[in-house]
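Hi everyone,

Forwarding the result from last night's run.
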Amino acid sequence: MVFYTKMKLKQRSIYLFLTLAVSLAALIVTVQLSDRSQDIRERAASADDPTISLTASSGSVQFGQNVDISVVITNTAAKRIVGTDVSINFDRTRLILTGITPVTTHNLKTFVPLNANNVFDGSSSSSIVTSANSTGTLIFGAVAYNQSNNTVLSPQTASFTLATLHFTAKSLSGPANLSFNAIANSTIDTNIVVENVSTDSLRSATGIGVTLVAPPTITFTPTPTLSSSCPSLISPGDAVAIYSNPTFIWSACLGTNVKYNLKITTGTQSVYSVSITQTSYTITNQIPWVNNTVYSWTVKVCPNADCVGGFPSPARTFTYNPTPTNTPIPTSTSTPTPIPPTATRIPTPTCVPVPPPTNLQPQGTITPGLRYISWNMSTPGSRYLLRVNDIADGWTCYPATGNDVCTGEHNNVNYQYNFLVGHTYDIWVHSTDCGYISPIVSTRVTVAAPTATPTRTPTPIPPTATPTRTPTPILPTLTRTPTTIPTNTVIPTATRTPTPTSFPCSAGAQGNLDCSLNACIDTGDFELFRQAFGKQVSSLNTPAGQHTPNLLQDSSLIIDTGDYGVFSLNFGICQ
């Protein structure tokens, strides 16, 4: 898809003649080299025209891990680049796009399309990213324009990295290829716009491939000191009754930056797990304790950063036995729907990739207080990795700090959390079983204070306050008098009078958007075109007496550089 720049001229004498009429001729060749799949589109272009390519932070990535893909434009001949469109296909069965980071160290500083707030949003929850994950095609663009101060920037003449794309590997091994949409004579694919060049200046487009692999199986040799003497559990001791979340204490083991894993179970079911470097830990999250139930707890020294493997200490036990007066009562006016606190784990007979959970709740805007974060079970026996990021205090994990949550393998399909008024939270969940980790399911929640807003009744305005305009007296002013407004002369005026709707819009299809009587395509028309920049055609509401900025009438559903090409060719001309 072709996008165009949103620019505003603040000086009366600035005319911008940027011609964009994209004409492509493409030949697609697939090259297999060093496990990298490349799509190369050769065009009938100059040998020194710019090229576009993809580079990866790693040639292989394990399930659940991240890989960054950079979009690089090579401009060895110092061509004057003023804009680019990017259309990339990726294997959505193996990769999920989690975000787009624009690189603004070059002159193409304004990225499109823009959202309702008139900004480019490349976050995981943006429409650009969610649409790409749905279709397997990512589309965006950039132009040489500074949106923060409304200035047109000089063309980019050096090679540069346009943006970085962030992907997470799904649990499906094999090659995942990324390639450009670069089709001959198409204006809705990947293009490079060079100043004063009327055709697409992209010479070639080269994709890339990464390989997804399963995490390696690690075999650990038992260490007697870890399995018996260290650490030793101190508190709570055996057969102790507790009435709230306890504090667990154990002895320190020799070493530097030793990491410990605390695990709480009941029978064969895991209740809670956390990895920390301290020798004590107090549970602050809401745990679905069951009254009069015996729980066991163990601590092990982590043999690696992920705490996989190792040997736990001998277990100690305690009983959860709260008194009625200590039963916590949520203060929130919105009482969470009771959800069974535990889900019985049914052993999976064979190890297969697990699907993501569904129906993650809550969503949208909610009231503050205690409520359950819940989701539907993916498969019997699955466990879940829950992450809650309070945007107000940044994101931390292993261990989570502040109001963030970063659980280990969580057996339940719900988690009680205290949502704070005025805060915004990103929530995401993976399913996991037998070493497989599913793609994420995520949501963003905003917490608003429940307020009673009084209904304001607008003061009636007497009908006579607004005079009714009668078209008949205005009609004589619609006659064009050559002696009053000379042909082919741009006459700047301090105040522009809207053209009556009954007058035909001369040269409207060429860019006379305000339908001025002199049919001149000038800065007034450019201001109307600028306001429509990057917007969906269906969202435009063209007032009576103006012409639609959708000048190209092509298959694109956005006011883009195709429309701008028509406008710029006629800018400064009086028909």
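The chain has five helices and 33 strands.

Cheers,
N.
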